[in-house]
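Quick check before the chapter quiz. The format below is the same one you will see on the exam, so make sure you can read both the input and the output lines.
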Amino acid sequence: MKQNSTFIRRALILTAIAIVTAIAVGLPVFLLVDRHLAMQDARGELLATTRSMAAVVYDNADTFNGEATAFASLGGQFWLTDGINIDAHTEAALPAKASPLVEQALSGYEYLGGMHVGGRLNVVCVCPVRDLSGTLQRALVTCLPLQGSSRMPVSLILALLAGIVATALVLSLTVGPLFNPVLKSFDKLGSLIDDVAMGKFAREGDESAPGEIGRLNKGVNNISRQLAHSMYALIIERNRLVQVLNGLSEGIVAMGKSGEITHANPAVERLFPKRNGVVTTDARMKLIPDADVWSDFDHAIATGESVARNFEVRDMTLRLTVSPTTDESGVIAGAVGLFSDITQMERLERTRREYVSNVSHELRTPLTAIRALVEPMKEGLVNQEADRMRYYDIILREVMRLSRLINDQLELSRLQSGTLSIEKSVITLDDLVYDVCDRYVAIAADKGLTLNVPDNMDACPSVYGNADRVEELLVILVDNAIKYTEKGSVTVGAAWDDEKVTLSVTDTGIGIAETDLPYVFDRFYKVDKAHSGKGSGLGLSIAMELTKMLGEQITVESEQGVGTTFRFTIHRKAA
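Here is the expected output.
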């Protein structure tokens, strides 16, 4: 037991008060009640004995002597007196207090009561004594010391009840002052614990309080500080996790065991925009209006098995992966779904397949033509010199076509790998544009086309770029325009402002469908799906990579059956 225990100390004080009160009240009550009961018992016995002895004083001396002897054996004393003479049957003298009682007895009255004789409480009885004729002759005085009562249990019960009542009264007056401070301290401590349980960590208990109250307050304060630290750490981690989840491009939906949504990051709303005019009270359908998706969640929760599948939403291909979550005991507590936009991945995979197919097609066509010409020559079936020369020309053309295809592939690979270094310098565009156009005027005329050259190139400002790459860009665009224009014209234009110069190539050819415009810069992409032979399909891909390397932009505008315009920028040198 600790010495500074306030509660135990007060309990001991209260116990001591209860014991002292019980003894202080119970013992006197017991003594008083026991004496009273003993007096009652002794008075009844003494009165009967005294009357019996008084009746045989003159009637039978032997009987009187026998009763006197029996009475004396009980410690009793008695005296016969006529008021003057005393016939004492004991060595003690008749108490002086008994003289008035004797006079009353000689007048015919009896007396029964208590009297101190020799410093001890005695029961005294005085009875008149009559002779055989009935004449009142003397008085008999008997005295018996008071003994304990034969009804002690009654005394004890009464004393106990008195002690209990007195103790209850004292305790009712002392419990409050002793324990109210302790109870108030516990009440404050309980309020503090409630605040801590509700997350209010600012309050602190009084650690200076005495005894166990101070220790409890100190313990609760330590718990509060630890909980606050842990709570703040959890909040930081939760916020960090929310920021991570919200920053993901993939949509994430967490669901509880009963099917309620517990978290959904903003990417989900981007993947599944709200539909106008659709009203629903189902929170799940409001978030993702697809019943099959929620069936996958319910299946994962019910079976504990993961679900993975692809599905289409508008113009996107999404990958859904639903995994069940468990609590610390391994029981399924919900599910988490990950929505990934794999549209670009699918498109890249499709492009890869198409790329392999296109490369194979582009290589097979000239190789097939070369084989078809070499085999008859090898067999000696071509005898005429003119035919052999014609075959040689065709073979040479196909070999050159293969060479251009391979060179374009290597050029595009170097550009896309980023290993090709392009040095920039200040260049003038007028001579460059005129040189390219001069090379293609004759080619355009052979196809019956007009190649329009800008007449304001002399006023075009200088730019900051690479002359060879700018020329290559212009060649690709002019060459494409002439190839895909059957009639009409091809126009080279230039426009500029304070920041950049924009060169454009416009044709009146077949144009490009709106659905094909996003893909014209892809490898081997041709508007002509039959790959009829107008180019390798790599020119515009090379043009796109060149503009990226130069830090410029290339754009296309087209209307099917009307014509197409390509534009690319070249920045002017900063002042």
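If your answer matched, good. The chain is about 50% helix and 20% strand.
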